[in-house]
Design goal:
Elements lengths: L1 E10 L2 E11 L4 E5 L6 H9 L6 E6 L2 E3 L4 H6 L2 E4 L11 H5 L8 E2 L2 E2 L1 H15 L14 H13 L5 E5 L7 H16 L3 E5 L3 H7 L2 E6 L2 E7 L5 H9 L19 E10 L3 E9 L3 E6 L5 H8 L7 E6 L2 E2 L5 H6 L3 E4 L3 H5 L6 H6 L3 H4 L8 H14 L16 H15 L3 E5 L7 H16 L4 E5 L3 H7 L2 E6 L2 E6 L10 H12 L1
Parallel strand pairs: 3-10, 3-11, 6-9, 9-10, 15-20, 15-21, 18-19, 19-20
Antiparallel strand pairs: 1-2, 1-4, 4-5, 7-8, 11-12, 13-14, 13-16, 16-17, 21-22
């Protein structure tokens, strides 16, 4: 149905795609795999009309295509869910979902909003998204925005759906619902091109898998008796050891560095209580809209709580802003939304990584010593294996996974005593994910820092966290302890307990 032949694409100093040829069949789920920077998203954007190939050809049903822009792709029945959050924040859910087909709801220059809202509600129900068509998108979580993006693509009834990291920030339950929708699309003859760094997902839902490495096709294989280790070797060109359990942390439960009491923010979370100890990794798990991220932002002073207190080091803390959180209390926050909150996209790596340490390293008259700044930046690039042309490369030119590493790097550079990490491995390849896991583990194990890990990736939480608080509808409904008692808990056991709390 869809075929690409000898596609080349080059960016400044980067050969993104080299003679890529691949075909996609009617009614199949075709996965694209590869490390960050392998060319997956570039290939997707060429199919969607966002990018133009430097050379090569694309055919749909044997007809050669020349897409000038994304509208041409939509007109040829291609829907696209971007890896990054792409919504109009000040508009309603309905406005975002019907954006590509406003004419279907217009008559004499006016939109029939009742009809549009009814149409939107059908897709909200399909996605299991508990918001209203008239709600403003800006107030929603990243996961909710991601589901709105997916609904926007699905409602086109396209013959080809491009899903670039669609389950990023979604829990297993929400991803499972999406997989059911994908299965229905496949059975109806729709071609689904699925990009994910979660190998378990790829093996679960794909019919065929194409692996890219350094902009070239390594191979396309049928998903029959394929092992996870085989895919990893194809992706990275070598064997990679995937740890399932990081070990045990030396945590003194009496050494409490942060205590949150009765924290409440109306309609977001209510009466939240927890303690965080030195050298601990405390996990937060919950479904979309459960209040985890909002709680983190309230602790940091980004959102204004309605009630509750927070103690840092045994003393009552007053945190009116992120700056106070960092400078006075040593609290950092790796945002789940790197595009809007985590990065300065038009700035280079040096500015993005060092922005959290400028005040610490500034000399008289506020002058920033360039040598010190460069040293910090280069160390973070090396420590996190960021693929870049240098410290002056603009962050917006990096792949999504490398942008995530930069978002993490700026807080590691600040050497925070308490680090809140929200969805740390979204859009990060398997090798980099293992590396980030080891970094997070070292922060707690070796540096004895306290970490709150917010993740929708249950295996990630079970692997790293030694206590897990389960959130539901703005409350902590359960706590799983004993993950640090010398007995390794298996995934099925812990997930069953979490499922019980969420029931």
């Amino acid at each position: 149905m869809l075929e690409l032949k000898n596609i080349d694409k080059e960016f400044p100093s980067v050969k993104a795609l080299q003679s890529v040829s691949v075909s996609f069949r009617d009614g199949e789920v075709h996965a694209l795999l590869g490390e960050n920077g392998a060319g997956k998203s570039t290939l997707i954007k060429i199919i969607s009309g966002d990018y133009k190939a430097d050379s090569g050809e694309m055919f749909i049903n044997g007809v050669k295509m020349h897409f000038r822009n994304s509208r041409d792709a939509i007109n040829n029945n291609i829907g696209y869910v971007h890896q990054e959050v792409q919504v109009i924040p000040e508009s309603s859910v309905t406005e975002n979902i019907i954006l590509d087909q406003l004419k279907n709801f217009a008559k004499n220059g006016f939109i029939n909003w009742n009809k549009a809202n009814e149409f939107t509600q059908k897709y909200l129900d399909m996605m299991g998204l508990d918001v209203r068509p008239t709600d403003i998108v800006r107030r929603m979580t990243v996961a909710q925005k991601k589901l709105i993006q997916i609904a926007r693509a699905l409602c086109l009834n396209a013959s080809v759906i491009l899903l670039d990291e669609p389950t990023a920030s979604l829990t297993d339950s929400e991803a499972g619902n999406l997989f059911k929708i994908i299965e229905k699309l496949k059975n109806s003859g729709t071609t689904v091109i699925f990009v994910s760094h979660k190998l378990e997902e790829v093996l679960k839902i794909s019919d065929r898998i194409t692996v890219l490495r350094d902009g070239e096709v390594v191979g396309t294989i049928e998903n029959k008796n394929v092992q996870k280790s085989d895919l990893v070797t194809m992706m990275v060109g070598r064997e990679v050891t995937l740890d399932k359990f990081m070990g045990f942390l030396d945590v003194d439960k009496n050494d409490v560095v942060m205590e949150v009491k009765n924290y409440t923010l109306e309609s977001k979370f209510e009466d939240v209580n927890f303690k965080l100890c030195k050298g601990e990794i405390l996990g937060f798990y919950g479904l979309v809209g459960s209040g985890r991220t909002e709680l983190a932002k309230a602790i940091l002073g980004v959102l204004r709580k309605d009630a509750g207190t927070i103690n840092i080091g045994g003393a009552k803390a007053n945190i009116p802003s992120m700056r106070t959180a960092l400078d006075k209390y040593g609290i950092g926050y790796v945002s789940e939304n790197r595009k809007e909150e985590g990065l300065i996209l038009r700035a280079d790596l040096r500015d993005n990584i060092c922005v959290t340490v400028w005040r610490k390293i500034a000399e008289k008259l506020g002058i920033i010593p360039k040598k010190t700044e460069l040293s910090i930046c280069e160390q973070m690039i090396n420590d996190l294996a960021i693929r870049t042309t240098g410290v002056r490369q603009i962050v917006n030119h990096l792949s999504g996974g490398n942008q995530q590493k930069v978002s993490m790097a700026k807080w590691l550079a600040a050497r925070c005593e308490i680090l809140i990490i929200d969805e740390p491995t979204v859009g990060v390849d398997v090798g980099a994910k293992e590396y980030l896991h080891r970094i997070i583990w070292a922060i707690a194990k070796e540096q004895q820092k306290a970490v709150i890990l917010i993740s929708s990736d249950m295996p990630e939480l079970i692997k790293l966290a030694r206590r897990i608080c389960v959130f539901k509808e703005g409350r902590i409904v359960g706590e799983i302890d004993g993950l640090n008692d010398g007995v390794e808990k298996n995934y099925a056991e812990v997930s069953a307990v979490i499922g019980h709390y969420l029931a």
